[in-house]
Amino acid sequence: MTADSTPSTAPPGLLLSDAGLDSTLAVTSLDEYGSPRDGHVAAERALTLYLNKRELVTLMTLGSQPEMLVLGWLRNQRLVQRVEQVAVIQVDWETGAAAIQTREEIPDLEQRLSRKTVTTGCGQGTVFGDLMDDLDRISLPKRELRQSLIYGLLNALDEHNQIYRRAGAVHGCALCQGTEILHFVEEVGRHNAVDTIAGHMWMNQTPGHDKIFYTTGRLTSEMVIKVAQMGIPILLSRSGVTQMGLELAQRLGVTLVARAKGEHFLLYHGIEQFLFDQPPRRIRPTGKKA
Fold first, then answer.
1. Is 176 noted as a catalytic residue in this protein?
2. Could you state, in order of their start, the residue ranges of all structural domains in the chain?
3. Each residue of 22-39: pLDDT tens digit?
4. Is residue 157 a contact partner of residue 140, using CB atoms and an 8 Å limit?
5. CA 71, 115, 201 angle in degrees (round to 5)?
6. Is 145-275 in CATH node 3.40.190.10?
7. At 216, phi and psi to the nearest 5?
8. Which of 23, 42, 46, 66 is the most exposed place for a label (fewest CB within 10 A)?
């Protein structure tokens, strides 16, 4: 399945708007010779979230799947524990607002919102509450990961990144099962992309224990925490990893693979579950005898 063929179905009693917009806009620019070039730029729209009429945060987003972004953001911020608690998500682009209603008040909301961490996410992501809260409650399964599976997955991902090819300026994230891409989301920032996928998973009650999460962005503490909260034990990126991202992966038991492109990758954590079953042929330097 691809992201386009796996629509999310709202649980009974949850009212959702359908306010997705085009992810790119047509523009004309001048190249280095002064000649006009028709092309596209990635959209960037401000969406302010209101929870039970209380303003929470403004997210910068492409706006293609705003309802899933809002739902996943609520989950990954740990403001809502169960999807059944959410009654309404209504996105209105004329006002640039997403109105969220829950079936009961959120306990300790003001206290949680008073503690804010500005993360390293593109466009400056924000995490409310203590970033390290509840980490000891996370228990991830140990899943075998084969080198050949990484190569197969990277090949399968090549056909995606459509917005990046068209306009650039975005990050992509994917929820994968084996080499199958269940959801692929491109967004202004990688934290928005992971939240959108979290929304799809929560909506469809998709388990994470047998999944792989792929991102084009770097593996920061925020990325590791969010993926662990989604129950996903393997995190794969074509970019690098930060010190805190590595430390949290070690603490939480997340297999961490970075700099994955072509046949190259760096395994930072999870060697016990990794099988080197398809090592690439070493290229000998020119002029040296075998």
1. no
2. 10-136, 145-275
3. 998 899 998 889 999 999
4. no
5. 20
6. no
7. -85, -15
8. 46
- Which residue among 42, 89, 122, 249 is the active-site one? 122
Cα-Cα-Cα-Cα torsion 178, 180, 182, 187, nearest 10 degrees, comes to: 100
Can you point out the beta strands (E) in 104-169? 116-118, 126-128, 145-146
Dump pLDDT digits (tens) for 81-120: 899 999 999 999 999 999 999 999 988 888 777 766 555 5
Instruction: Express each pLDDT in 9-19 by its tens digit.
Output: 777 789 999 99
Report the 10 Å Cβ neighbour count for 139.
9
pLDDT at 196: 96
Four-point Cα dihedral 142, 148, 153, 156, nearest 10: -160
Over residues 128-155, the pLDDT tens digits come to: 556 566 788 899 999 999 999 999 999 9
Residue 38, classed as helix, strand or coil, is: strand
The token pair at 26 is 């047509």
**Per this entry, what is the length of the chain?**
290
Q: Which residues pair with 239 in a beta bridge?
A: none
Rounded Cα gap, residues 185 and 52, in angstroms: 28
CA–CA separation, 27 and 40 (whole Å): 5
Helix (H) or strand (E) holding 67: helix 66-76
Cβ(220)–Cβ(127) below 8 Å: no
- Enumerate residues 6+ apart whose C-beta is below 8 A from 157: 174, 181, 184, 214
Within 8 A by CB and 6+ apart from 156, the residues are: 176, 179, 180, 181
